[in-house]
Amino acid sequence: MQDSKSGSSARGTAEPKPSPYLTRDQIERSPSRAFFLKKANGDVELAREKERTARTTTCAFMQESGIKLLLPQLSIATAIVFFHRFYARMSYETYDRVTVATTCLFLASKVEESPKKLKDVVIETYKAHHKVDKAPDVESKEFFDLKERVLVCERILLQVLGFDLSVEHAYRPLLAYVKSIKGSKDLAQIAWNFINDSLRTTICLQYPPRCLAAAGVHLASKYLATHVTKDFKLPDNPQHGGKWFLSFETTEETIQDISEQILELYMSGNQPVVGPNGGPGILSAASLSLMTDNMVQAREKAAVAAAAAVHSEPPACAEAPTPAPCAGAPPPTEQGEECANGEAKPSANSTSPSRRGAQESAVGAPTSDRKRAPEREGARLEGETENMPDAKRSRSSDP
């Protein structure tokens, strides 16, 4: 009887649900990092660089194979997320990354309802990996062993993922936000490219899709301000306290961290992201330098403006007989937050774009295989959603 009561008490106590996302520290201590640390004889920076190279090259291999299999970008993105989740728990020393990547593509094609035959997956991934035009004969023992390896790995992959195959992507909140502000096709396309490039990092393990979508929009706006329209700025939204990023329920600090990780991908010792056909990445070295300088200058201007606001005394608040709403509140921060932000949180449904209309087309910004433009896959997204969700909701789909 005592056990029954204690069991009821335990069931009645609501335990906090663990976060599905990992911290930087947890990723640094993953089995994969431990393997590269051992290979690098304890050199932390070398181990980090080797793991980054392994991830980026394998993700590039998956992107190339997925395109040859005619998989939609959503399926390729899901496969890459499966790959990152697997090696956050397992080691490259124990499982061959090419076999795991092939298995992730095969599983993701079924999860996202774009199934491909195992034979076709094995053929295309073999050709992409070995850089050949022809795979082994389908009746040969070698081909049979390749298929058997994928089937065995699929069972292991499912167990490591805990049979949790739900993956949300940043494409939907991105397009919902661009639609809500009546943004340009350029803004949507360039942000889309940055999101695709982010798949070659561990950002999907660290942050929700809505945060990644916000960072993609932020980087796209900086790119446009650098290359297309001077002083391009995302419009403030009065319904969300005046700050555009509150539509995604995130903070400037989070956006800054994600943006820096994406830019680090271009600035790392690896070559900028290049497609299977040798196409250039969205940022050349000159573009990256100019864009980064502009972002630093913008932050410096914001800091100067914040410092000036600290020393200014608003006469209206000082002379009012009754304390004004901002009286006693801290001065605007570097992000320029209004004092009302601490009093009322924006409504969760304050921005609700209507159903997506005409499909958006590719723009002239330099892109590579990551282009998988919104207009090429937008029909599927529109068919799935009668009402476009708010920008902060992020059920995965192909735009």
Automatic annotation (TrEMBL):
One of its GO terms (biological process) is regulation of transcription by RNA polymerase II. SUPFAM superfamilies: Cyclin-like (SSF47954). It comes from the Eukaryota. Residues 60-159, 172-264 form the Cyclin-like domain. InterPro entries: Cyclin-like_dom (IPR013763), Cyclin-like_sf (IPR036915), Cyclin/Ssn8 (IPR043198), Cyclin_N (IPR006671). The keyword tRNA-binding does not apply. Residues 1-28, 315-399 are annotated as: Disordered. Belongs to the cyclin family. PANTHER family: CYCLIN (PTHR10026). This is Cyclin-like domain-containing protein. It comes from Prymnesium parvum (Toxic golden alga).
